[in-house]
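Q: Fold this one first, please.
A: Sequence and structure below.
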Amino acid sequence: MDNQSSYDSMMGVMASEETRTVKSTPARTPSGEGPLAPAPRAWAVRLVVVGIVLSALNLRPAITSLGALLEEVRDGLGMSGSVAGLLTSVPPLCFAVFGVMAPRLARRFGTGAVVCAGMVAITTGLLIRPYTGSTAGFLAASALALMGIAVSNVLMPVIVKRWFPDRVGSMTGLYSMALALGTSAAAAVTVPVTEALGGSWQSGLAVWAGLAAAAVLPWIPLVRDRGPASAESKAVRSVPTRVEGAGPVRPVHTRVEAPVLRITRSRTAWALAVFFGLQATAAYITMGWMAQIFRDAGVSAGTAGLLLAVTMVMGVPLAFVIPRVATRLPHQGPIVIALGVCGLAGYAGLYLAPAAGAWAWAVLLGVSNCAFPLALTMVGMRARTGAGVAQLSAFAQSTGYLISIPGPLLVGVLYQHSGGWGLPIALMIGLMIPQMAVGVLAGRDRTVEEEAAR
């Protein structure tokens, strides 16, 4: 599909809402039952906060729980190293394919309904995938869960922009912190929980469906709620006109649609998409393979899971701090450079002394992986309007995840054919340099609307 036509045909959840005004009659609810309140309802705001946090907690356990038990899953299903590499490439593939659909689905059904359905898909996929009994079935059930994660990935920045337009940094930080907490918790406790449940890797993976089921609940009351921008979505512009034989001039209400934002004309959008893709490559290689790197270096399975958890848990405080700092800077390039340097140091340590300095490398790579909340923050900063954020989020994440697909697969192939981790780690080091370069470009103080207009 042509990128231009794909993204031009897909206005964000609020595409027409940003340009409609009311001059004669108040906006009405989607059902037409009276005027909307000028401010969002307090109960709805609280539910959205709870929903954001619970949803974020569920956006990575499907991946990191598998990383902690990858060796057991490979043995149980008879996977080769190349097939396991394919398995670690499934998340970005699903995020790219299904993420691009999120704005269109949300425009039709509402963000709350789509995220609610996404949480249901995660719950179902996590519950059934360990018991499919085959590699194909395991991949299919994983894809179902990842589909739910994909649409939620794209819509979280949109929800933050719509409900909390004056608190983008702090709410993105809260969301990113919850995401990092869920990621690290899955990495840390999956192995102990599996042992407590009798050593069955199936039970150890399926238990995470319970957390996903809890995330469905806060979105149920919001399924039909379109958010605080609903008043705008039903607004009209009054155009004075005379109806023949009807006496004086009276207003006729017309709907004015926003022009399509040609997102692919923006250099910043492309830079942000490539930055997102390269940081996702590093993240999914880390989540899928880092525990195995430590285990092959002589570290026990439980300790390797804890090391992966340390890497993930570093994102809990930093994911809250980095977005707040980023929104106060005119250029986010210095943060990009600092995170990249930490990544280079961590990879060098894995190459030279994986077991001796394991805890230090885990910390450094955890800091480096905080490029993810930085990328989400820049999505909110590089667009002026909610519609722009929706399109930029879909474009940057879908294109970025497409870019990230080959990385984990290539690591699996290099590992199997070289018999060690030297070449895969060299690949990771090589990818960090362009990540830093495009991150600096994406961090410049400009908006995609301005660039697309030019």
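Q: Good. Now the second chain.
A: Here it is, same layout.
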Amino acid sequence: MSKTREILEARAAEDNIEFFMTMFVDMHGRPCAKLVPVSAMDVVCEGAGFAGFAVGPMGQSPAGPDMIADPDANSYFKLPWRDGVAVVMCDIKVEGKPWPYTPRIILGNALKKLEEERGMKLMVGVEAEYHLLKRDETGKLVVADSLDTLDYPCYDARGLTRMFDYLSTISKYMNGLGYENYANDHEDSNGQFEQNFKYAEAMTTADRLIFFRYMVNTVAHSFGMLATFMPKPFHDLTGNGLHMNTSLWKGDENLFQLAGSKSGKDDHGLGLTSLGYNFCGGVLEHARVMSAVTNPIVNSYKRMGVSAPNSGATWAPAYVAYGANNRTQMVRISEGNRLEIRSVDGAANPYLTFAAVLAAGLDGVDKKTDPGSPNTDNLYELHPDAVAAKGIYPMPPTLLHAAENLMGNELMQKALGHTGKEFYSDYMAKVKMEEFTKWHSQVGDIERTNYLNLS
């Protein structure tokens, strides 16, 4: 009997499990699954089959052989809202071999290399913002709470209380799963919320985020609402970020934290070790290259910028810069123990994003890249010429620009791996270019409004 089967059969018996959901994600981070009864444990353990081309960008054509979902027994957990159902996260195999187009495998390879070559692990915490919406009598999407109309709704106690039953349900489910939910709040946009859980090793956090998004959507539906992590669902409201708090560890030691470390030098006064600053330097240097990974859809580039929504500030970075407790920066260092990468948004696939950020940061570590002096200005207020004079570059303006930056980049090619046919990063760049072209070819109402009678 395989170790995987032994673990899953024991857990299923202990928890009275009747069905397994064998789950994986595509390039877009969309959860895909099959529901398999425990009586078909052979299918669970030997792998449920999927038609790869039907899933999405997974490197297959209709002629491709089945993708087999290989379960990671250590990822097992019970579905919080339905007895008798367990979820297990899976890696994809094709004809018995790990399928290199699988985002979870890409991150797993990067983390294994980090451990074997450097004796380190990547720790990540995420701040996943989302909107709760509904459809009005005309079918238009609107904020679910009709009383949530304040110009400055952030941290509004009344808005939080009106959503108490929903938010507390999510919180209880998270804690039941061991996520350690520590805060729930109304965010800067009408209808926007954030529910935080404790940081963990990168693969654990990525798995948890995928399920958290699925759980939020499912529970919202049961409350008669629709949830979205879309980066910019409304042009006049703040968008949804996925702030990535990251650090490198060796054993129980945080290698970014100067306090208590063997290093007594603080290069820029923010409490980081030299390794932490170098990692930050690498992230900044490669930010525009990995933007197609961290900000992977057309809508992502409507979130970034300096134009303010109704609440007065976008809260999304427009420029590649870092600083202390300054939320206009791409990288914020509020405490000397981690980097808060604020450019990542709600559409990001965490497996690919964590792998890309790790590669960028390690390149900075290897090259001892100095991020320069922290920026102290409000970058939303500076004229673009003044920003350029400081040597600070803007983020890509569109997905097309970002995909062109990604195409052929050697660091990202190495970071995301070769599929045997092509570099995954180049494959992703092509998918994203096609995505932009498809969107750009559509004619919408705003074009007709502005151009119908222009000439």
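Q: Anything worth noting on the second one?
A: The mean pLDDT is 95.
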